[in-house]
Amino acid sequence: MEEDKKEEIKIVKVTEELIKAKTYEVRGYKVMLDFDLAKIYGYSTKAFNQQVKNNSERFASDFAFKLTKEEVNNLRSKNLTSSWGGSRYLPNAFTEQGIYMLMTILKGDLAVKQSIDLVRTFKKMKDYILENRELIGKRELLQLSMETANNRIEISKINSDMISIEKQISDVVEGLKDVVTKSELADMMNSFISDDDEKWLMFNAKFSSADEVYESIYRQAKSSIYVVDNYIGLRTLVHLKNSPTGVNIILFSDNVGNNKLHNIEYTDFRKEYPTVKLSMKKTGGIFHDRFIVLDYGTADERVFLCGASSKDAGARITSIVEDYGTAKYNSVIAGLLKNSPLVLPK
Q: Which of 14, 50, 104, 259 is the most exposed place for a label (fewest CB within 10 A)?
């Protein structure tokens, strides 16, 4: 009987078209609804929601919420939900972060497969937007970039707890130890980590999420962060947005190459994150390598050598290593601090 039940399960192919068709906007969020997600994962809606209820502590209000009658009627009036039929129940809606959290509670080979396909499809959709950035406004692009980074970091945090990627992000692991167990996403994330399209680099001789490595380094700063990198972009700013409050950040760059940072993006970033103390100076065209210097001129000074620009981190095989001989950089940084401000193009 069990084998017959398995054969009856219709596997829903996860595609960009499916995600677009099953994504609605409610309360300012892009969401998917419980009955659509249940079909994707091979559950009945009742069994799906029971799993969510059993793990309710994992679903914050910005991860999942129940629709009101007015919201249901509004969606029905737009002919978006014909699959509801005559059901009177109020469905649960899941944001993208909520969908990632579902991956920690839904079990079985099909759930693992569908989770992998969902992650990859979300990534393809976002990459398409970023690759076609000229088709949308810069302000919209900035917001999309922020959301993309946040979502990738959510996955990186879960992944870190399972496979102990790096000591330097142990604070993230500690924060999640009561939420996600090490075994729950192991199969899915092991497949995910081997995907050649993902953004991974070598840090301290281990493959790690590129975005999480940069953020983990920046979070260790106590007084200052100096980034020397001639190629900067939106992703450079995104990595810095969660830096410790009060830390003085200076980007040293000549802002060269394609898709360079523009003033409108920088201005919007400053408005979005007013507590980030960020300024920019020129490098003077004499730097090829990239550096991150934390807490310059103090006993806590640290220097990291970066094999690629942060905006392209993980696109090719590269690495970040710490150089413990910080004294030799003092004259270099002292010279950079005298340089004139960097003026971004409009």
A: 50
